[in-house]
Design a protein that fits this description.
It is a single chain. Strands 3-2-1-4-5-6-7 form a seven-stranded parallel beta sheet, sandwiched between helices. It is an alpha/beta fold and 256 residues long. α4 links the parallel β4 and β5. It has one domain: Rossmann fold (3-Layer(aba) Sandwich). The protein is 45% helix and 15% strand. α1 packs across α8, α3 packs parallel to α4 and α6 packs across α7. The N and C termini lie far apart (36 Å). 46% of the residues are buried. The structure holds nicotinamide-adenine-dinucleotide. Nicotinamide-adenine-dinucleotide binds next to α1 and α6.
Length: 256
């Protein structure tokens, strides 16, 4: 199938987890993909696995919180593949701490990656997309951007920020006539390195995982590919009338 045939996509934090699955799926569906991550070894391996020839996949080492780096990532993408049609703002980090325990230092670090970088990246992508007929920006928020968790104070704040920032950007782009759609995706718990680390915090990763499973009415955790499917839909022209919306993919977590 060629649901994003000929499109050019940047996927941040694509060395593993949800970002890796999204990069692989977008490439399978015909996109040329730019895999970016701070983890250069794993990120390069993903790009090589997609296309070792480098013709359809490129890895760029990229810290999303570094404002200056964004201009270079977008420039290199356009130089290599001739444009930019899709940006998936996926890179993210977690901190398990309540409002009483969280430190300002960690709060600021987390916001810089989960929220500030989504702003910087969206701004950079709009600059590249608006004069070339438009595009699709997909911001990976979370169920934690919809409902609160007592032990995710900073993470909740960042993902809630991504949710409503997405709507502001979508409205601006729509009213400006840019042809750029901006949407957010809200995964439940997906078994990735991030969640494996969270599950292991109590010392028993299997018990931690079962506790997380119990939060999902569907009776299991999600798979990265199940989030990639939603990202693909929003990135593709099948979602041509979808902007400013939030796609919840959470096994029923927020339905109750
Ligand atoms: N796994 C889940 O259950 C879940 C649920 C909801 C939302 N999310 C969100 O989905 C996104 C992906 O999560 P995941 O579970 O795949 O995480 P992960 O930790 O498995 O992968 C995240 C990737 O982001 C990269 N990264 C971290 N900081 C970076 C930075 N400053 N610049 C560039 N890359 C950086 C990491 O190196 C890693 O490769 C995150 O935004 C996360 O908050 C995850």
């Amino acid at each position: 199938m060629n649901r994003v045939e000929g499109k050019v996509a940047i996927i941040t934090g694509a060395a593993k987890g949800i970002g890796e699955a999204a990069a692989r799926l977008l490439a399978d569906e015909g996109a040329k993909v730019v895999v970016t991550d701070v983890d250069a070894a794993a990120g390069r391996a993903v790009a090589d696995a997609i296309d070792a020839s480098g013709e359809n996949a490129l890895f760029l080492e990229h810290d999303v919180a570094d404002e200056g780096a964004w201009a270079s990532v977008v420039e290199k993408t356009v130089e290599k593949f001739g444009g930019l049609d899709i940006l998936v703002n996926n890179a993210g980090v977690a901190s398990t701490a309540s409002v009483e325990v969280e430190t300002l230092e960690k709060w600021r670090w987390l916001q810089s990656i989960n929220l500030d970088a989504v702003f910087i990246g969206t701004q950079a992508a709009i600059g590249a997309m608006k004069d070339s007929g438009g595009g699709s920006i997909v911001n990976v928020s979370s169920i934690e951007g919809l409902v609160g968790d007592p032990n995710l104070a900073a993470y909740n704040a960042s993902k809630g920020g991504v949710r409503i920032f997405t709507k502001s950007s979508a409205l601006h782009c729509a009213k400006s006539g840019y042809g750029i759609r901006v949407n957010s995706v809200h995964p439940g718990y997906i078994w990735t390195p991030m969640v494996e680390a969270v599950a292991g915090e109590g010392g028993d990763v299997d018990a931690g995982r079962e506790a997380l499973v119990a939060l999902h009415p569907i009776g299991r955790l999600g798979r990265p590919e199940e989030i990639a499917n939603g990202i693909l839909f929003l990135a593709s022209d099948e979602a041509s009338f979808v902007t400013g919306s939030e796609l919840v993919i959470d096994g029923g977590y927020t339905a109750q």
